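Worked example 2:
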Amino acid sequence: MKPHLKRILVSPVFITGFAFALRMLLLYMGSRSAPNPVRDDLPYGYELGQVARSIAAGKGFSSPLGLLTDTGPTAWFTPIYPYLVAGIFKLWGTFSGMSHILIQTMNCAFAALTIIPIYGIAKRSFGEGVAISAAWTWVFLPSALYFPIMWVWDTALVALIFPLIFWATLAMREKHGILPWAGYGALWAIGILINPAILSVFPFFLAWLAWEARKAGIPWVRPATGALLVFAICLVPWTIRNYRVFGKFIVLRSNFGLELWLGNNPEVTDTMGHGQHPTGNPEEAAKYKRMGEVAYMAEKQHEALAYIRTHPSETLNFMFRRFVDIWLASSDSPLDVWSSGNLIGISSTLLNCLLSVSCLFGALFAYRGRHPEAAPFATVLLVFPFVFYLTHSYQRYRFPMDPIMLILAASAVAHLISLVRSRKPNAKRAAAPASSLPAL
């Protein structure tokens, strides 16, 4: 391959542009066969789309249920992505075809830009070869093609901000001033105001940075305090809004009780109780409106906790199923998928098995090799999905973790290849004396 062509193909800028072009091509091909007009239930009608519609209509951050058009203020989501979608609705029409295309284009851009932190993290931690491999794999990874095009939730944006935060966490090991740490706290606040699911790893990342600074004999109390202070200040406006609206201290979101109940109640069949969500259940929607959001969520949390206390074995079984669902990205048993004969389902399951196993090997190799940045990688794998084991799972919930998994998987493959290559010369050297022995 010519040197200048090779430089282009390994450039993260080129890979990002190629990834965006591929997604736009798939989006165009899909739009040719899509129903017209766009329906207001799929692909962006659910709670997020309804809140965005309410904002665009001038009714404020409210009314998340499609079955009922006016249910009052909500804290179902944190504000950044609903307002982003609402801005598009305001300019190009609520649930219009143009808005649909623009939101999908935006998410395709988010998915393509995720290559930048993937490349940066992998190059820093495992070298340029792993960075190039991980970046090109993301270009064609099925989940990285599917979710930005088919879902208008914050999925693609969270999958961009989370590796950016991870990359910043690694870089903070060399930063000792107050200003970089303050920026780090602000970046975390932005990420959590997009989706609070990533909050679970925040204390572990901050503790790791403090520990690394302490080991190096570097002052860490003031920088860490500054990061926490900026982080808290950035969340204050949204928390104040929630307190003024609901008269209750809701820092981020109000819906944890519902999410916990959906995965822990007598009607759960595999990973959650299908058909119980108030978005599609008229009885639950009416109850939500009658009780109000805060009281409804509190009741659901009480019911879920009562079920967990009285049905520990069923709860553990549900958690195990959700564990399998997260790591295989499938709610069906691998044996059922295999026996179905569905080639797409079988291929998807095999690919996710390969990705999951490879990333776990990558984490293991990093740990055994005493890699200085192994702890944050392990934290993501161990901590991030835990809330979904407890509540309920879906394939897209894991998607923000996929860039980190992909980097670890690429590092595992590179490690195995290096082991094979290192043993070949040894085998030749071991064979040489034997060949020189005289024949008996």
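Residues 402-436 form the longest helix (35 residues). The chain has a mean pLDDT of 88.
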